[in-house]
Amino acid sequence: MTLWKFIKHYALEIYTVIVMTLLTVPAFMGELSAIQKFMVVYSVLFVLHEWEEGMYPGGFVNMIASLVQIEVNDEIKRASRIPAGILLLLITVVPFVFDSTILFAVAVATFGIIEGVVHIVGIRLFQCKTPYTPGMATAILEATESVVLIAYLACNHLGAWYDYVFGPLLMIVCFGMLQKTMTLLVGIRYSDMPKYVKAQWKRGNRA
């Protein structure tokens, strides 16, 4: 097995090990700022989310594949964790290091809220028999922490207006890039996704 194949096959496990290793750093830093504490919690939730979404119970990639009516093999499923892991590392490490830059914290909070909304809407979109999509439990926890983070920032008058405007915009761009990369991995164009989503939603209305 080549190094690249090893990375693709064990992407989720590698991401988990990296995060668990990084989580030892705060132990040597003394008192953490509130923003840094939020990022530590996010790091744990993101790891749990990736495992819930991809492995236990897993199946979220299969749901997306069913949306575009294609088969996704195990190699692609595992490789899809690479862009996800990179993004999740960036959006937790950068705000942790630059904890005085509120824009980054708002961006992470936006991501958590997006995750929660996507998984809840997914119940209707994929016509789930039970009110659950793979990854939803941890996604709701991410969204909850995001609401608490935004409330903390607002109540303590942290950040300027542009942090609350450009923070979400930054995350929307990053999230879009992640989705584009993952759609390319399964062999479809990102620009076609709205068409697939609309068709799936109509099928749900007829069901």
TL;DR?
With 207 residues, the chain is mainly α. It contains ten helices and no strands.
Describe this protein's structure.
The structure is a single chain. The protein has helices at 3-9, 11-22, 34-54, 60-67, 74-79, 81-97, 102-125, 136-155, 161-185, 193-206. It has 207 residues and is an all-alpha fold. Helix 2 packs antiparallel against helix 3 (34-54), helix 6 packs antiparallel against helix 7 (102-125) and helix 7 runs antiparallel to helix 8 (136-155).
SSE blueprint:
Elements: H1 3-9, H2 11-22, H3 34-54, H4 60-67, H5 74-79, H6 81-97, H7 102-125, H8 136-155, H9 161-185, H10 193-206
Query: Poorly predicted ranges (pLDDT <50, ≥5 residues)?
Result: none
Strand content: under 5%
* Alpha carbon gyration radius: 18 Å
SSE class: mainly alpha
The best one-word shape is: globular
Total number of strands: 0
What's the helix-strand series?
HHHHHHHHHH
Question: Main β-sheet: number of strands, strand sense, barrel status?
Answer: none
Helix content estimate: over 70%
Mean pLDDT: 86
What count of domains describes the coordinates? 1
Instruction: Give the distance, in angstroms, between the N- and C-terminal Cα atoms.
Output: 46 Å
Keyphrases for this structure?
207 residues, mainly alpha, 74% helix
